[in-house]
Structures are given as C-alpha cells and as structure tokens.
Write a structure and sequence with these properties.
single chain, alpha+beta, two-stranded antiparallel sheet, 2 helices, 5 strands, elongated
Length: 93
Amino acid sequence: MHRFLIIIEKANENYSAYSPDLPGCIATGITPEETEQNMYIAIEMHLEGLKEDRLPIPKPNAATISAMDDVNHNRNMSKTFDTIESLIENLDA
C-alpha cells in the first residue's frame, strides 16, 4: 500500500489538487471534499497507468502537510496539519 501526500489549493471559484510524488497527477472540484475524492480517483488511475506501462511506482517522499499564510506580507508563516481534514478546515479561514 502506498500513501501519497495530496495538496489541495483554493483556486478562483474551485479547488485543485496534486501530489508532489506523482508528477502530472491532478484533480479539481467545487469543494475541498469533492477535490479530495477526485484526487483519490486520479491517483488510482495514475498508478494503474504506471503498472500497465510497466513503470515503477514512485516511493512517497512527502512527510508533512504544510500551508503558507501571509506570503504577500513576507511573514512566511507555516502551519503543519496532522490530517487532511484539519488542512481543509483552514483553507477558507
């Protein structure tokens, strides 16, 4: 079993997601929850494609979930979240 970090970002009118360990594997959704679910589906499809092409599945390298706050004000504060749920709760804060 593989566990890949998923990054969910707020876009203009929706959310987007990607995994740093799986280049090109992305998803979008109207809500953070929909985006997360779409990303799980995208990862499954991505891994199936790698297997079909007999390519190696990358080993997950990401260890923490962080979000940057106030980048425009040069504070570069970061928060680390233990779960994807706590990260999602803070996206709109």
